[in-house]
User: Fold TRAP transporter small permease protein from Tistrella arctica.
Amino acid sequence: MTMPVSGTAAGRFLDRVLNVAATISRAGVWACGVLLFAAVAMIVAEIVLRLFGSSLHGAHELSGYVLAIVTSWGLAYALIEKAHIRIDVIYMRLPPRLRVVLDVISILVMALFVIVLLSQVQELLAGTLRRGSTANTPLQTPLWIPQMLWMAGLVWFAFTVFVIAARTVLGAVSGEHDAVARVWGNRSLEDEIAGNDHSRPR
Assistant:
């Protein structure tokens, strides 16, 4: 999937960056799928072993880490694919110019949320490293390991948000309303039904 490259030089550059981000995010989703499949296999093995009075000793803990990591790494891909739930009953009935204004506001609010989120996550990881915290489980997993992998996914999500925000604001300022709709605007009902949304990267 590639994002159509058009508009100003800065716009074309940001479109290329988004194409790269989409490729990396897709690869990350595939890797997370493999990781999730491994976690499911581990849980199934744990269930079977318990029938015979044995255990893997840590399947529940590790599967929890996997769930958190998979979630954080899936956020960027969901953002690019516009897979997050949006309520657009009013939005789709507004004129294009007003849609662009709402698109700019929404992506800037999301960027602000990501900044606050990363600041809190950074403090959590810093505290874990400072205290040398380990899980209160038989595995005694150093918590910085799953937290670092989880935070890496959130950092990539933040990078994607900032690139989309930059492209959206640039498109709004330069009058490229089609670019704003393509990158960040809501998908129409017709696009959802047809499954051929021009605004999604290909």
